[in-house]
Amino acid sequence: MGRIIGAAVGLGVAVVGVPIAVHVLGFGSAGIVAGSIGAKMMSAAAIANGGGVAAGSVVATMQSIGAAGVPAVASAAATAGGAVLGALKDLCAR
């Protein structure tokens, strides 16, 4: 049961923590904040790729998360994890 609780807590931390960390780095709904770590990452990625940021790259993915938040799949997984924990709690209490 401890592993399941640990996994659920880890998933919860990821669902909440990742968007916060991405925002702190400067990736947001209005774009990448000038002078931020995200802006430096984008600049480095663009220089490495000849002027553009490659689709699917770390920078592109972080900007996507910053703009849209956590994908619905991650939110659904967190909800399902909570439901499983609730069911296991009830089973263990019997």
From TrEMBL:
Instruction: Note the superkingdom of the native organism.
Output: Eukaryota
Q: Name one GO cellular component term.
A: mitochondrial membrane
* Location of this chain's protein in the cell: Membrane
What is this entry's stated membrane topology? Answer: Multi-pass membrane protein
Q: Which organism is it from?
A: Ailuropoda melanoleuca (Giant panda)
The organism's lineage is: Eukaryota, Metazoa, Chordata, Craniata, Vertebrata
State the InterPro entries in the record: IFI6/IFI27-like, IFI6/IFI27-like_sf
Q: Which Pfam families match?
A: Ifi-6-16
The entry sums up its family as follows: Belongs to the IFI6/IFI27 family.
Which keywords annotate this record?
Answer: Membrane, Transmembrane, Transmembrane helix
- Keyword Transmembrane attached: yes
Q: Name one GO biological process term.
A: release of cytochrome c from mitochondria
Q: What is this protein called?
A: Uncharacterized protein
